[in-house]
Amino acid sequence: MTASKKNIIGSPLQELEQFVVSLNEPKYRAGQIYQWLYKYRVRSFDEMTNLSQLLREKLKDVAAIEQFSVATSQTSHIDGTVKFLFELSDGKKIETVLIAPRATAVDADERMTLCISTQVGCPLDCRFCATASMGFIRNLTAAEILNQFLTAQHLSKKPITNIVFMGMGEPMLNYSNVMTAMDIMTDQNGIGISPRRITISTAGYAQQIRKMADEDRKMKLALSLHSLRNDVRTELMPINKKFDVEELLSALEYYQKKTKKSVMLEYILFNGINDTEADIHALVKATKRFECRVNLIPFHSIEFTNPQGIAAQLHGASQEKIMAFWRRLKAHGVTAFIRHSAGIDIDAACGQLAVKEEALV
């Protein structure tokens, strides 16, 4: 794409209307282009058959439909998970994961989940996350966020039904671009995915959680929690120094009461660190404050990033201990689940995304 051409992927309808009017075309043409881009997901102006040939040629001269280059893709031999390495227009790379449901799932024939990244790298340095090894490079644009879906859907044999913003980066640090992409994803004239099938996960930006509530955002919210003890959580997640446990719980309480939507608390179980009876009681107590569910997550190795310090000392709790932890939560009336791990053999499971060469940038 040349610098003089406008990439129209990522443009909300109002922005497209302004662009079309600047070309001396009627404003309603923007709605047609918008639907072609997102509802029908065409990849060229020639496919926009209800536009005149003259307009299509004009658009080719001044605009572009940006597309990703797939640098590599890997498919899990265990569960069919696909990890894409996408190359961006500036040469930077991100990973995006397409996750098929377990064969035994009741919706195995219907569900297909895409795990989307929001930043190149991440600045938060969570000790258990491979993306931390990259450092922070930059935010993704709304177009780059949307293109992960558009490209993955183009390559997928099945419709993508669910989106989780749980890939590389902290979505709340790229709030504007994430929400612009989200609006297009959930627009019935756009991509048309129900907000109930989209989850945004945050490491804990309290003010953005409250902002989501004030804006009445319809997607699901998940908090990467992992401990209710400030000393432990700070060691695992340095962001806790800025937003401690009580501030986060207060923000979640505000969110849930204002939106009436349940919150997901994500909890990786580390052996001997956050898996004690005291941790269970703290988690039970927290869940009484607002409507929520707990998602217990096995720890996935990040040895391939050569971790240092506490990151090198982390070990996941055994499957037996995870089950015991889950049973204790259930006994206290907590709605709790154990997350199914997908893509472990291709380093595509929760916490494993990292573009190794980007660490050198």
List the helices and strands and how they pair.
Layout: E1 6-7, H1 13-22, H2 28-38, H3 53-62, E2 63-64, E3 69-75, E4 82-87, E5 93-99, E6 113-115, E7 119-121, E8 136-139, H4 142-155, E9 162-165, H5 175-186, E10 198-202, H6 206-214, E11 220-224, H7 230-236, H8 245-259, E12 263-268, H9 277-287, E13 292-297, H10 310-313, H11 319-331, E14 336-338
Write up what this structure looks like.
- With 361 residues, the chain is an alpha/beta fold.
- It has two domains: 6-64, DNA polymerase, domain 1; 69-360, Alpha-Beta Barrel (TIM Barrel).
- It is 32% helix and 17% strand.
- It is globular and about 70 Å long.
- The relative contact order is 0.12.
Essential attributes:
globular, 361 residues, alpha/beta, 10-stranded mixed sheet, TIM Barrel, DNA polymerase, domain 1, two-stranded parallel sheet
Radius of gyration: 21 Å
Number of domains: 2
**Count of beta strands:** 14
Number of helices: 11
3D shape: globular
